[in-house]
Design brief:
By secondary structure, the chain is mainly α. It has a single domain (about 15-410), classed as Up-down Bundle (Growth Hormone, Chain: A), CATH 1.20.1250.20. It is about 80% helix and about 0% strand. It is built from 16 helices and no strands. The chain has helices spanning about 10-45, 55-80, 85-100, 105-135, 140-170, 170-190, 205-210, 220-245, 255-280, 290-310, 315-330, 330-340, 350-365, 365-375, 380-385, 385-410. α1 (about 10-45) runs antiparallel to α4. The longest helix is centred in the N-terminal third of the chain and has 33 residues, at about 10-45. It is globular and about 60 Å long. Mean pLDDT is about 85; it is low at about 205-210.
Length: about 400
């Protein structure tokens, strides 16, 4: 196989190319996922859609429910079948579904198209991390995953910015059509990636230490539990912040998406890279480095997020929002590295799939629609303030897990 050595490992050049391509596709993934958040105000003006805030939140919820239902299927396939072929299939599917979103003539049609996006993203999100884990050794995996997950804030920011600007110029339908096109080209490129043997870069004893059944793997369960609370808070903020800035702060729709998108992309890049670098650096001192970095930074982000939502001065609010996002994103690379490191290589795709199921089912499935329902009942200003508490809970779980794991010698 091209790009693979005689021992089965990928060459350094092939690993870098694979990381670059998978990161680019992850960027498109999150651009597509968060473009709806930029279009909520535009979609509410469409006469036949009758879009309340709760209904708007359900567009994300419907997508995530399908994403969750199909993730375990692709996780199982990813542990047995060709991983490049499966991720290419997923990218092609979500791209077509995104373009169909722009052709919707009713709320039901839009809901169905957005839900279908979840099938394609499930294939990609479950399998790509497992493939990357076989491209890079344990000692550099945190940095590799930080590069890969740095695409989340960049893609989300592009979703906000591109969605808002394209919709303002050409309408919401054009925004969906523009978002869907790049993925079709990326799907073809993914077919050329190498697929090395599973666990080729892992030492057997270390990998087997986390190979007990996932339901009995305590480090894995703690990591995922904290991730679920974190996702509830950050996912809710990601969906509702543009609307919050428009309604509560009085910022125009286009300006809100651009300003928030700029904050996300800058803090996301800086926070994600810094977290991955710090996690790898601290591994020499503690096996729980990834949990410590994730827990401490998330604990620090929670009160800053509350200040961002409650501060009366716009300058203070935006400064606190930027600081909170910077700290929250620092956990992205380390926590995903922790997930793949505490399980056996041959079940990594399944472990990622189950973690996706858990963090979204308990996280950003309920949070957008819950905030929307509370907003309909009271106000968006009050409803969105439940989200910093979720970040606090996630940080506490991870920090406690790191402390317990240090005493008990958990694998990481």
């Amino acid at each position: 196989m091209e790009g693979v050595t005689a021992g089965g490992a990928v060459t350094a050049r092939a690993a870098r190319w694979g990381l670059a391509l998978l990161t680019l596709v992850n960027l498109v993934n999150y651009l597509d996922r968060y473009i709806v958040a930029a279009l909520v105000t535009s979609l509410k003006k469409v006469p036949g859609f009758h879009l309340s805030d709760a209904r708007a939140g359900s567009l994300m919820t419907g997508f995530v429910l399908v994403y969750l239902a199909t993730s375990p299927i692709f996780g199982a396939l990813g542990d047995r079948r060709s991983r490049p072929a499966l991720v290419a299939l997923g990218v092609g599917l979500w791209s077509v579904a995104t373009m169909l979103s722009g052709l919707a003539r009713s709320f039901l049609g839009l809901f169905a198209a957005r839900a279908a996006v979840g099938v394609g993203e499930a294939a990609y999100a479950t399998i790509a991390p497992a493939l990357l884990a076989d491209y890079f050794p344990h000692s550099s995996r945190g940095r590799a995953f930080s590069v890969f997950y740095a695409a989340i804030p960049v893609g989300a920011a592009l979703g906000y910015v591109a969605g808002g600007l394209v919709a303002a110029r050409w309408g919401w339908r054009a925004a969906f059509l523009v978002a869907g096109g790049p993925g079709l080209l990326a799907a073809l490129a993914l077919l050329g990636l190498p697929d090395p043997p599973r666990g080729v870069l892992d030492e057997a004893p270390a990998a087997r230490a986390g190979a007990v059944r996932l339901a009995r793997n305590v480090p894995y369960l703690v990591t995922v539990a904290g991730y679920a609370a974190y996702t509830f808070g950050l996912g809710g903020l990601a969906f509702w912040m543009p609307a919050f800035l428009t309604r509560v702060r009085g910022v125009s729709e286009a300006q809100a998406t651009v300003r928030f998108g700029t904050i996300v992309v800058v803090t996301g890049f800086a926070g994600t890279f810094a977290g991955g670098w710090l996690g790898d650096r601290l591994l020499a001192r503690t096996r729980q480095a990834y949990l410590w970095v994730s827990g401490v930074t998330t604990l620090a982000a929670a009160p800053l997020a509350l200040v961002a939502l409650r501060a009366k001065g716009e300058g203070v609010a935006f400064a606190a929002l930027a600081a909170a996002e910077l700290l929250a994103f620092a956990s992205t690379g380390p926590i995903n590295s922790a997930i793949v490191n505490v399980v056996a290589p041959e079940v990594r795709a399944t472990a990622v799939a189950i973690s996706i199921l858990a963090i979204h089912l308990l996280g950003d499935v309920p949070s957008p629609v819950l905030v929307g329902a509370l907003s309909d009942a009271a106000s968006l200003r009050d409803a969105i303030q439940i989200l910093p508490a979720a970040l606090l809970a996630g940080g506490l779980v991870w920090t406690a897990g790191a402390a317990i794991g240090s005493r008990r010698g958990w694998a990481s």
